[in-house]
Design goal:
With about 140 residues, the chain is mainly alpha-helical. Helix content is about 65%, strand content about 5%. It has seven helices and two strands; from the N terminus they run ααββααααα. A hairpin with a 6-residue loop joins β1 and β2.
């Protein structure tokens, strides 16, 4: 599950979703298309759509990896249980990734637990918000087992 999450977030997620999924009307995001260099500004509706798109591809990647892994190992998964776990993963990932500045759940959690500086870390090849998201995902995956 952990590797499926990383693959979905790092390899499957497109650049647009990665940059725009936290956009809001109060904190719009300007996106520059890497090929055309065209700049567009995005608010809440586009941020929600980008996050939704990412979470759909994220969940699909998990479903494929878990399905193939279970089949390779000869493990039978109950379809309803699998669907419930994927729905939980989808919902919690959407909540964690909808990083609206000053209003995101992950940011609020980081502040309440004294991890605000780590959350905001964006130096030395680190991204604190990304790593806190991974920790939340690991907790979700452990709860699913």
């Amino acid at each position: 599950m952990r590797h499926a999450k990383k693959a979905a977030t790092i390899w499957v997620q497109n650049d647009f979703c990665a940059r725009v999924k936290g956009a809001s009307d109060n904190s719009p995001v300007t996106y520059e298309d890497p090929q055309t260099k065209e700049k567009t500004t995005h608010g809440t509706a586009d941020g929600q759509k980008a996050c939704l798109h990412h979470c759909l591809t994220y969940t699909a990647t998990q479903a494929i990896v878990v399905g193939l892994g279970a089949r390779a190992l000869g493990i039978r998964l109950h379809p309803a249980a699998g669907a419930a776990v994927l729905a939980l993963s989808f919902g919690t990932h959407y909540i964690a990734d909808r990083r609206v500045p000053g209003d995101g759940v992950l940011e609020k959690l980081a502040i309440k637990t004294g991890k605000e500086n780590f959350y905001r870390l964006a130096d030395f090849g680190m991204n604190g918000a990304f790593h806190l998201d991974i920790l939340c995902t690991k907790s979700r995956a452990a709860a699913m087992l």
